[in-house]
């Protein structure tokens, strides 16, 4: 199996972390994977806020809905990568949206987030992509400027408890030849 496919198959949503800092060189490799992620017309709409201060992580965790399984991870992980994107840039040409779906920012941020999660896994680190929270409240906590949108938060750290793979659909269940 290719190394990339192995990483994809082994990546998990990690919600338990060791009390151990993430080495700065590891963090830089993860951020470099975002830097080299593809984006619409090379717009590179991503902005990442690296949160290490416990008091800020606690405030961000408070924006998660009650019962969100990532609440503990937000505080326990040594750092949280706050994934933000520039609005009205990706998927636009001369200030006009060019796709049926409007702003392509979410697609670009999805690619960048997958890059960072796979790179973290390749370094022996765990991540979980958190999307269910009050984005506006979290944006205020990290001083998000106008024209930007906070899309996801990704706790990252050394894995305390890993889990097995969930059941996956068979390829034949989602692939269609020549038409749906």
UniProtKB/TrEMBL annotation:
SUPFAM superfamilies hit by this protein: FMN-dependent nitroreductase-like
GO molecular function, one term: oxidoreductase activity
Gene3D superfamilies: NADH Oxidase
Keyword terms of this UniProt record: Oxidoreductase
Domain of life: Bacteria
Keyword Oxidoreductase annotated: yes
Residue span(s) of domain Nitroreductase: 8-71
InterPro entries: Nitroreductase, Nitroreductase-like
Similarity section: Belongs to the nitroreductase family.
Name of the protein: Nitroreductase
Species for this entry: Desulfatibacillum alkenivorans DSM 16219
